Amino acid sequence: MAKEITRIAKLEFNAGQAKPGPELAGLGIVMPEFTRAFNDETKDRNGEPVPVVITVYSDRSFKFETKTAPASYKIKQAAGIKSGAANAKTDIVGTITMDQLKEIAEYKLVDLNTNKIESAMKQIAGTAKNMGVVVEGLVDLKEAEAAAKAAAKDIANANAKEAALEEAAATAIETKGQAIEVNAIAQSAEEEGDK
């Protein structure tokens, strides 16, 4: 008779460094047994983050399956950065080459929802873009920098207009029932284009 599955959990630990803790306590497994088995299986992966799927059975036994490191971790490694951009539209924090992109895609292929390397490369390139990392050869760096600069300018203009509207609203509340001098917030399209 097959064992009854009571829970399936998706967690992430650094390779070779799993320790008993709150994330494992709720699973109802023998924590030292899991951490020992996980650490033995992942000790050669140099401390990289390792996603793991743990299947827990009614008799408190378990099995686990390790996955490849997250694409974002591999991209940060390849680009030599500590973190992605706070705003990927306005900031470019690093670059990777097409060869590095292909290497990451080949590494991640077993865990992705495709068997084609080209599709995997597109997925990894999308992750890189969302992190503010440019793939050289796929995207022109100068164009990406110009687009980021334009997006930053658009955000600054929008913030300035929002501040002006908030100031106008505050003035309207302060002068309720009194005559006030009105300053135009929006400029004509010609004047706005000159900036």
Automatic annotation (TrEMBL):
Cellular component, GO annotation: cytosolic large ribosomal subunit
Keywords per UniProt: Coiled coil, Methylation, Ribonucleoprotein, Ribosomal protein, RNA-binding, rRNA-binding
InterPro entries reported for this sequence: Ribosomal_uL11, Ribosomal_uL11_bac-typ, Ribosomal_uL11_C, Ribosomal_uL11_C_sf, Ribosomal_uL11_CS, Ribosomal_uL11_N, Ribosomal_uL11_N_sf
GO molecular function list: large ribosomal subunit rRNA binding; structural constituent of ribosome
Cross-referenced PROSITE patterns: RIBOSOMAL_L11
Gene Ontology BP terms: translation
Keyword flag Isomerase: no
UniProt modification remark: One or more lysine residues are methylated.
Domain annotation Large ribosomal subunit protein uL11 N-terminal: ranges: 10-62
Keyword Coiled coil belongs to the record: yes
Coiled coil (UniProt feature): 141-175
Task of the protein: Forms part of the ribosomal stalk which helps the ribosome interact with GTP-bound translation factors.
Subunit: Part of the ribosomal stalk of the 50S ribosomal subunit. Interacts with L10 and the large rRNA to form the base of the stalk. L10 forms an elongated spine to which L12 dimers bind in a sequential fashion forming a multimeric L10(L12)X complex.
Family, similarity comment: Belongs to the universal ribosomal protein uL11 family.
Name of the molecule in the record: Large ribosomal subunit protein uL11
Organism for this UniProt entry: Mycoplasma todarodis
Name of encoding gene: rplK
